[in-house]
Amino acid sequence: MGTLLEETLNICSKDLYQSESTAEEVSKALKRDGVFSGEVVNRRKDGTFFISFLSANTIYDQDGNFLGTIGISRDITKEKEAKQEFQNIVNNAQDIIYTANTQGKFTFANYTGSYVMGYSGGELVGKSFTH
Fold first, then answer.
1. 110 three-class SS
2. What's the rounded Cα separation, in Å, for the pair 104 and 113?
3. What residues contact residue 124 under an 8 Å CB cut-off, 6+ apart?
4. Distance CA 52, CA 50 (A)
5. Shortest CA distance to 52 belongs to which of 31, 22, 27, 73?
6. Count of domains in the chain?
7. Under 8 Å CB-to-CB from 89, ≥6 apart: which residues?
8. pLDDT on residue 131
9. What CATH number does the domain containing 20 carry?
């Protein structure tokens, strides 16, 4: 058993992701654009998964030779779970809850709000509440 540094240096980057397709997506973006920024599902050493926000860039030397990539990944699992719980509370509330933009158009309406106004699902989004 090596040190943490030795273990880390011997990890193949595709083994950090839940699926090989995610590893390929990140790799293609880095080759095509030199950057990747977005949500991915990563794999821990113990095999469990977590949602992270990854920001990665390619690195070149002063002569333009490719040196490698660098990335920063932040575990956002708890934030995603909290957002989902909040959405469930809002959507299942018995009160009318909506948001509108400065042009007076609905940008969100919960199920109760849509139902009371005679709409279903996302039908109310984009409609004006001022006329």
1. coil
2. 16
3. 98, 106, 109, 113, 114, 117
4. 6
5. 73
6. 2
7. none
8. 66
9. 3.30.450.20
Q: Tell me how crowded residue 106 is: count the other CB atoms within 10 A of its CB.
A: 21
Whether residue 68 is found in the same domain as residue 112: no
Quick: pLDDT tens for 66-100.
Answer: 999 999 999 999 999 999 999 999 989 999 999 99
Full residue range of the structural domain in which residue 115 is found = 93-131
Check residue 46 and give left, alpha or beta (phi > 0: left; psi -120 to 50: alpha): alpha
Q: Tell me, yes or no, whether 26 lies in a domain.
A: yes
Are 51 and 110 in a shared domain? no
Q: Which residue has tokens 């299942």? A: 92
Q: What is the pTM of this model?
A: 0.67
Q: Name the nearest CA neighbour of 50 among 70, 74, 75.
A: 75
